[in-house]
Amino acid sequence: MIQRQQLRRGARLIVVTVGRLNHFIDEGYISLREVKYLFLDEAGRMLDMGFEDSINFIFSHPSLTAKEERHSNV
Prior knowledge:
Elements: H1 2-8, H2 18-26, E1 37-39, H3 43-48, H4 52-59, E2 71-73
Parallel strand pairs: 1-2
InterPro entries: DEAD/DEAH_box_helicase_dom, Helicase_ATP-bd, P-loop_NTPase
Keywords: ATP-binding, Helicase, Hydrolase, Nucleotide-binding
GO molecular function: ATP binding; helicase activity; hydrolase activity; nucleic acid binding
């Protein structure tokens, strides 16, 4: 509950697992429309562990800032 309230107020930095991020997006607690930097640590390892759909969900989400307007590091 506290996390949701804090996210609704906005954040400059969010450190979160891929699954938790997808949950917050699905539930409408956060939007990706103002993301300037998106870093995905250990992406190769996550792909090996079967998280490809979760990663694709984030990078193809309609609210995600256009790639020309954000920096992504995977």
